[in-house]
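Supplementary notes for students who missed Thursday's class. We covered one full example, reproduced here. Read the sequence, then the structure, then the short commentary at the end.
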Amino acid sequence: MKMKFVLAALPLMAAASAWADDAAGNADMIKRGEYLAIAGDCTACHTAPGADKTAKFGGGYPLASPFGVIYGTNISSDKEFGIGSWSDDEFVRAVREGVGKDGQQLYPAMPYDSFTKMKREDVLAIKAYLMSQPAVHSAGPQTDLSFPFNQRWGMRVWKMFNFDKGELKNDPSKSADWNRGAYLVEALEHCGTCHTPRTLTMGMNTDKAFSGGDLGSWVAFNITPDKNAGIGTWSQQDLVTYLKTGFVAGKASASGAMSEAIEHSLQHLSDNDLNAIATYIRSVPATGDDKQTKPRDDWGQKNQDVYPLRAAGQTISQSAAALFNASCAACHGKGGGGSGEGFHAYPSLFSHTSTGSYDSRNQVSVILNGVQRHMEKGEIMMPSFANQLNDEQIATLSNYVSRQFGNPAAATVTAKDVAKMRKAADLTSPPKIEEGTQK
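Structure (token representation):
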């Protein structure tokens, strides 16, 4: 009788063991999917600005494009508005081929031209993680571009010229570290989406890969090993530190889209993966730019001409230096050399890649938009001056910083330039500041 009981229990024990193995395997897959979703920066585009944790992956993030605003879609586990009813094949097709559940063509704001290089098992791990998260029952704002850009069938034509379908394969002649870096840079982190220039048909110009991208009011800088235009003077550790923290003293501090990439994705990667990214990036072909005549972090020096202005009590409307003194000197130092040490240090305005560029757009955009990075070690913040300074004053301030601390070639900003960038960022103009009014 006892033997019969044991024999009868064996199938149940085997089933329980198999269930436990499946559960453990699924948990491992979800955990791996979470890391891959972070590496792919899914949160940044598929979560609305200011949304709380209950709306994560619920869509609604506005992505500016030359043709209008494209909104990130709901990729939560919701069955009506999200991906809760999607099959594995449907999800893989959307991520790697840019085709939605019902066959609609997706806009390449979803970087499937990079994600096509992902491994199928990695895409499915991301899906498993998304399905483990709370459903967000909301359609969110819908993309509504003007004609002819609202005709999604046109994406088929776009793909004929700009989409090379296929998973990235390892290069057996390279190290495991290099191959991992290539996979992260080319596929998951989709670095080329911002840092590679576009062709006339708005595809990535792979002949000039990573040589810099035009983001409208921002510039995604050249990250090839060119010593003047790119990052050829950066060490391996410089790159790893920047990707992890967004700041390298005497070189750069992150802002704009790069700041968001570090906040949501790069700071959370393992040191091994960050080193792999740096290894790969430092190996790509160098691409120069004749307009950048020396390294971007090799411009400028301390300038002390604000000292006499403090004593004279000049107001912000009386000179460019006084404007700097009132708006910037408290944090960046009277001589522009920065202040503080370590993680919360305010960066120097000279020996900085933004002020040392011949293109002033990032500098102006930082003044307009400010900087805010939520980091694991704390928050990095610079206030926006959009509501304090008018277009003429911001142009004057930017040109002063370029002449005194950075690349003088960038001191060509006009009030009209600022107004255009202000409008693109949907920022309102401040009240007119009357002559003689104190800051």
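Commentary. The radius of gyration is 25 Å. Residues 434-439 have pLDDT under 50 and may be disordered. If anything here is unclear, bring it to office hours.
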